[in-house]
Q: What sequence folds into this?
């Protein structure tokens, strides 16, 4: 997310100095992973093992807009105008979120941070103790995503190589004969999404690595092995 210049978007927001309301022992986790790396599954398991709530900026934004909070209304202005929500608005949302009861021991950030300025801003409001980066070779991700298809009738999910229907062309669950593939699940689209991901996250990975808190996890293995490595890295 780019920082929009205040000259473009109107008067700058007043700067609010960080207060000492954040629990001193609070330590948060940042979770990285490209689309198709199995980040969602691992996020759920990290939450189960550590008790840290999962915080996604997308979910937070939608919740704040729906609740009509001051920051939510601010964010809505940008979203309605088709602009990226500025970092400061996201940081304000996070400040609110990490004061909730379930966040006393920290949170697990999913999909944030994406840039070094965001990481610096986050460091000013909470301690990030571990950054977990789930890495899977691009070709494997293309293979995983591009083979997916779903039953047009019941939505059951299949995969050409990993989980085909038992009987060709017939849904195992409902017997449906029609299937759908998402138009953006083709190799070119997936590759360009992955390229964008790498361009954006490599500098950030180096930045976190320089702080000694960056853990690369091989995501091209069984789900349980990946979880074990992540939990070990968090100790
Ligand atoms: Zn079906």
A:
């Amino acid at each position: 997310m780019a920082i929009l210049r205040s000259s473009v978007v109107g008067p700058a927001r007043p700067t609010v100095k960080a207060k000492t309301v954040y629990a001193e022992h609070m330590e948060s986790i940042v979770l990285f992973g490209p689309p198709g790396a199995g980040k969602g599954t691992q996020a759920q398991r990290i939450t189960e093992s550590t008790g840290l709530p999962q915080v996604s900026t997308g979910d937070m934004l939608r919740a704040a807009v729906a609740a009509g909070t001051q920051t939510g209304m601010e964010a809505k202005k940008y979203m309605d105008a088709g602009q990226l929500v500025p970092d400061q608005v996201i940081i304000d949302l996070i400040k609110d979120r990490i004061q909730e009861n379930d966040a006393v021991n920290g949170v697990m950030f999913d999909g944030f941070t994406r840039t070094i300025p965001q990481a610096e801003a986050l460091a000013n409001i909470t301690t990030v103790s571990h950054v977990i980066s789930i890495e899977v070779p691009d070709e494997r991700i293309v293979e995983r995503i591009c083979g997916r298809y779903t039953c047009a009738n019941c939505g059951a999910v299949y995969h050409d190589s990993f989980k085909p229907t038992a009987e060709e062309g017939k849904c195992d669950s409902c017997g449906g004969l029609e299937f759908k593939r998402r138009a953006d699940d083709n190799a070119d689209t997936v590759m360009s999404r992955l390229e964008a991901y790498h361009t954006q996250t490599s500098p950030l990975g180096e930045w976190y690595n320089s702080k000694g808190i960056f853990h690369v996890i091989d995501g091209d293995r069984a789900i349980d092995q990946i979880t074990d490595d992540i939990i070990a890295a968090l100790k």
